[in-house]
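Q&A log
Question type: sequence-to-structure
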Amino acid sequence: MDDSQLIIACKKQDRNAQQALYERYAPVMMAVCMRYCKEEEAALDLLHDGFIRIFTQIGSYSGKGSFEGWLRRIFVNLALENFRKEKQKNRFLEEYSYQMANETENNGEPDDLLDIENIPREEVMEMIRDLPPGYRIVFNLFIFEELSHREIAQMLGIKEAASRSQFFRAKKMLKNKISTILHHYNGKYNEQR
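Response status: OK
Response body:
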């Protein structure tokens, strides 16, 4: 069954079509969930909640644009909703936004991340998942969703400068982790020679 047939059947609440849709897209959407959640269990919860939302809202899919893109937006929006709820509980962004917005963004250091070609992809994703929640959300929205800092600031209810600063700090943390890992890998390589 192709996507258009699956969509039609899912709009009719066909359980077999829903299962087929889930099996087809769950691995891809799990990768999206893992970018926004630190723990795999939280990502699985997000995946579950996302598919429930998809099956209840599939009638709103018009057929225009990429279906996978529509699915992805649902998962990203759900991740952001969860983050906002968490933000209200612990006030993470409010505490750090002011500090970050008032600190120098570059300190004269290069803005680029180090070359990560020799680091396994899963290790890089793990480093991203280990970022503090605010950094991780801003980093994912800027890098993977390709949103501007203005858009991110509007979505999260923060200042644009705070978004830029959190992104800079996320990159700095990742750069330090990548440097450590590359140093470790280079040490192993030199030992083997």
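Response note: The CA atoms of residues 119 and 182 lie 8 Å apart.
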